[in-house]
Amino acid sequence: MQQRSIKRKIRCSGAGLHSGQDVGLVFRPAAENSGIIFHVKGAHGVRTLRPGPELVFCTSLATTLGLQEGARVSTVEHMMAAVRGLGIDNMHIDVEGCEIPIMDGSAAVFVRLLGEAGLRVQGAQRRVARIRESVRFEREGKYINAEPYDGFFVDCSISFPHPSIGAQRFCLDLTPETFPEVANARTFGFLRDVEALQKRGLALGGNLGNAVVLDEKGVLNPEGLRRPDEFVRHKILDFIGDMAMFPLPLRGKFRLHCTGHGLNNEFLRHLSARPDLWARESEGYPQRETPRLYPPPLPRAAAACAG
Ligand SMILES: [Zn+2]
Fold this sequence. Notes:
This protein is an alpha+beta fold. The chain folds into two domains: 2-126, 2-Layer Sandwich (Ribosomal Protein S5, domain 2), CATH 3.30.230; 128-294, lpxc deacetylase, domain 2 (lpxc deacetylase, domain 1), CATH 3.30.1700.10. Helix content is 19%, strand content 35%. The protein has six helices and 20 strands. The strands form five sheets. Strands 11, 12, 13, 14, 15, 18, 19 and 20 form an eight-stranded mixed beta sheet that branches. A hairpin with a 6-residue loop joins strand 2 and strand 3. Helix 1 (77-85) packs across helix 5 (230-243) and helix 5 packs parallel to helix 6. The N and C termini lie far apart (39 Å).
């Protein structure tokens, strides 16, 4: 499998979730073996950042990449899910501000933009980090289990004691062809949490146009859900985006239960600290048959997620 970049530069802008201010974003082609490179423009000038588990700050809202004191960029996960979902290895991302626009709360706009930019197949073989031993990573009933697999397979379950959510499960064998199954699933939150955040000056750009918002009884968005299991699909989207903080695309089968940005990043840091659990390899052509995608039966007894 060869590396990919985009064919041409493309620009967009949109409101940031934290600030509510307009943020500009430019995607530019990059040479093979460059990886994904952020150029963050702020008061300090332009700083360059490369994804890495140790450069991630997790908040309850989003994944932030950057330095404690210095350049940082928030809400990278949905855009990075689009980058991985489309199989882009090399790209420059110019950010004029300190966060990625929230768009509609999913990866759909980024997929459309990158599709408009066009994908270019490059000469060099794709380098991946392949899980080579089973890993069980658990925190307070939430877990990520990883095992070797020729691809990126996610089996995710969630359980929220809420009439619109309940127990949901979805599996995805990620390829550019299957990615649309999760790409337009929106982020979700509870009205009480959104109000509390906005009182603290956070999530100022959060509204019904860029998130599914729930009160005690149901979904407040007048258009309703895009799919009944939009919640679990979004958890998979977040996982894809958060795993893109590893320097190389990961390859493995991942079983997730009630994961969030914090757990996802702890898992990546664990992999970074244990290089014996994975191998750096060139990606061969996939040997498996048609990609598998199915909503499997719900788990019998899933522990309730805390939130
Ligand atoms: Zn998300």
